Amino acid sequence: MKRIGLFLLTNIAVIAVASITLSILGVGSFLDESGTNLDLQSLLIFCFVFGMAGAGVSLLLSKKMAIWTTGVKIIDMPSTQQERWLMDTTRELATRAGIGMPDVGIFPMEQSNAFATGANRNKALMAVSSGMLQRFDRNELRAVIGHEIAHIANGDMITMTLLQGIINTFVMFLARVAGFIVDRVVLKNERGLGIGYYITTIVMEILLMILASVIIMYFSRVREFKADAYAAKLTRKEDMIGALRSLKREMNIPDQMPESLNAFGINAGKRQGIKALFMTHPPLDDRIAALERLQV
Asked: What DSSP element (H or E) covers 125?
């Protein structure tokens, strides 16, 4: 409830700040004088509703989409000692983290990877790849599970969705304002919405979403450091460092995680110049260094 309350207050503040800023800049009066008759307040509310709805639907479908895109096999009744250990370890760490037991699954992937997702921290999904189960020792695997439990306990899936919703709102709003200006002021269209509005809106949405993704990726990298620290306290710092070093040794294995789950899976996070701004995960060396400095 606290997270949702904070979210609502944030969005109210977003709407207020945007309205005040546009008024100070004279955008509303400028558009009215130009004959656009654009209701900025209604437009902002419209964008907010649709922006949040899109992000919310993605969150609600996240578990089903993750299962479908990765081929996760949910463990209902453990049939092997390995599956039983995976279930027992997840239950132990979930209990220590104060969250409900998540669904536990294994997905067929040679690459060592794991992810957690779900709209409810007490009904989430935690899955590991078959390759990781085969090659990681149990201490390292336990630390990885702790890392994914940390994402659930910290509400990262929900927070990422709320952030995406706010960004959707601004992108839709600013793109449409730009479309109106080009259509009515630049192209002097006086009948409805012309081609200039639609082309400008589409182009601006693409450009603004690219710029906005820098913010989303930054938050994604920050939450990885937090999840590492949480896992180090939930398990052992040395095991979490060992897991990251094992991942470094496997960096030559091609990334097989679906793009839609990159932010929630494990990623090496190689530095690639300006591309580093669009990484979902920090470089492994940076994560290891941060853990080595951590006082547990």
From this structure: strand 125-129
- Check if the beta carbon of residue 206 is closer than 8 Å to that of residue 195: no
Per-residue burial over 46-69, b = 16 or more CB atoms within 10 Å of its CB, e = otherwise:
ebbeebbeebeebbeebbeebbee
| β-pair type (114-117, 103-107) | unpaired
Tens digits of residue pLDDT in 111-128 = 889 999 888 889 899 999
pLDDT tens digits, residue range 213-244? Answer: 888 888 889 999 999 999 999 999 999 999 99
Structure token pair of residue 102: 């998540």
Q: What is the CA radius of gyration of the chain?
A: 23
Residues serving a catalytic function are 148
Please, are residues 196 and 93 in contact by the beta-carbon 8 Å criterion? no
Instruction: Give the CA dihedral 138, 139, 145, 146, nearest 10 degrees.
Output: 160
Beta strands in 58-124 (DSSP E): 73-74, 103-107, 114-117
